[in-house]
Amino acid sequence: MGTTFNDINARVLQCRNCMTGENESITLYNGWLQSVEKKEEIKSDYYVAPGLTDLQINGISGIDFNETPLTTGDVVNATTYLLSQGVTSFFPTVITNSDESIISLLGAIVKACEADPLVSSCIEGIHLEGPFISPANGAKGAHNELYIKAPDWELFERFQEAAKGKIKIVTLAPEWEEAPAFIEKCVQSGVIVSIGHSVANSAQISKAVKAGAAMSTHIGNGVPLMLPRHPNIIWDQLSEEKLYACIIADGIHIPDAFIKVVQKTKQHKTMIVSDATCFAGMPPGEYTRHIGGDVILDKNKRVALKAEPGILAGAAKSILENIETLLEHRLYDLKDAWQMASVNIQEFLSKNSTAYKAPVNDLVIFNREGASVVINTVIKNGKVVFLKNE
């Protein structure tokens, strides 16, 4: 398999870089990356790729970033699980809730970052998805209408104070009268604004982009089940050249044909997000959580409202499983699928966030079993943080 041990602390992995196609010899020593050297030939079925980045993740493996109390241990465990899935950077996503609960959750994430250096290095920022979204059916998705409200800068400043400046992305509905001014203030303060959970018309989308909105939150979702043929909010966002588009590529939220249309339209501005909830990694069944209330998780990892089965309540696949779905459906090769979950996102953040520093020596080493990606080693900032038992 291309693995040799020079001594008890050293390890050499022969890999093919799935982004460049080059052969590389990766040397690890005492748990640290020592060197990456180009090779003409290798005898190995290992691949190496950049660490994955998830811009929108509500929870994972039974841990919910939207349930209070959220403990430091919860955030540490979620980070550990995500690293085992090849996710080296992520934005824990706090959705619509009471002001007090949002402040509590933001504070808990900050506390975990302060307590654990590895957690701090993996959490690039917090994604606030709401409460400044549309209350319309379909558009609000599984968000609780009770807490939805118009954009409020003073309230956002309270949220940001609780987060100690870690809110880096805000999803909002641009049809609110207050939205353009709010977007401008966000951008001036270094916060990325994303359009989502909205029924905005063409003029409102255009105003939001002119004000500085840079992203579409899970485009194709968070909209009413029925839309006008044209114009509609999906076409309007696809036509805005400045907008990057996030897609949930789990094979459930949007069909393959729509994924292909988004990627052809946006190209390198297409980014995969998991939108994973705590149900990712959990067995099928009925559950009650903040996101959606009473929900049903089926054997195909579809999460829907129990009362309205047509409305999805987040996702139950990790971003790695999204890549596997694209491979299984034969939509993209490994390079293109991985790029949408890593390189494209890093380029987006570098362009739109002055505080963002692209990761150095965040690597994932894996092999493939058909469409499945089997993680072997994960390296964060040059340090081995996950190693598969062999």
Describe the structure.
This protein is α/β, with parallel strands linked by helices. It has 2 domains: 3-49 and 365-387, no CATH class; 51-343, Metal-dependent hydrolases (TIM Barrel, Alpha-Beta Barrel), CATH 3.20.20.140. 28% of the residues lie in helices and 27% in strands. The protein has helices spanning 72-84, 99-115, 117-122, 153-162, 179-188, 202-211, 233-239, 256-266, 319-328, 334-340, 343-352; strands spanning 3-4, 10-17, 23-29, 32-39, 46-50, 52-57, 59-60, 63-64, 87-95, 126-129, 167-172, 192-195, 215-216, 244-247, 270-272, 285-289, 293-297, 303-305, 363-369, 372-380, 383-387.
Describe what is shown at a glance.
This protein has 11 helices and 21 strands. It has 390 residues and is of the alpha/beta class.
Element layout with pairings:
Layout: E1 3-4, E2 10-17, E3 23-29, E4 32-39, E5 46-50, E6 52-57, E7 59-60, E8 63-64, H1 72-84, E9 87-95, H2 99-115, H3 117-122, E10 126-129, H4 153-162, E11 167-172, H5 179-188, E12 192-195, H6 202-211, E13 215-216, H7 233-239, E14 244-247, H8 256-266, E15 270-272, E16 285-289, E17 293-297, E18 303-305, H9 319-328, H10 334-340, H11 343-352, E19 363-369, E20 372-380, E21 383-387
Parallel strand pairs: 2-5, 6-9, 9-10, 10-11, 11-12, 12-13, 13-14, 14-15
Antiparallel strand pairs: 1-2, 2-3, 3-4, 5-19, 7-8, 16-17, 17-18, 19-20, 20-21
